[in-house]
Model the fold of this input.
Amino acid sequence: MTDMKYSRVEIKMENQSRKGEVPYSDSESEVGTLTEDQVQLPKQYKVLLLNDDYTPMDFVVLVLRRFFDKKEEQAQQIMLDVHKKGAGVAGIFILEIAEMKVMQVNQFARLNQFPLKCTMEEE
Ligand code: TYC
Done:
């Protein structure tokens, strides 16, 4: 029975996008349309990796694969970008998820005794 309570939300999500008109229903009977400027979407946050001189490249690639679901090739590309430019975007998330990623990555780096730092900023 518990999976039933989310079914209506999932149906609504299918039609949701950042552009155009979004169907909505706030009761069982009333259905209307929100125009683009009426749609409330949560702020997005960039989660950044910072370069340093000591964290091994392989460890940064592992972090990008493990915490940001990147494939090997993309993880390598992001890591090299951070290495060359000083910082780079690992992913973009809503506030709570971004905060969790930052905590998990910094804890994982500390646990492995590397100075790798992860931060976030509003998009
Ligand atoms: N600069 C590191 C090295 O040469 C590699 C590195 C890349 C470290 C990205 C951190 O976020 C980072 N071993």
In short: The mean pLDDT is 84.
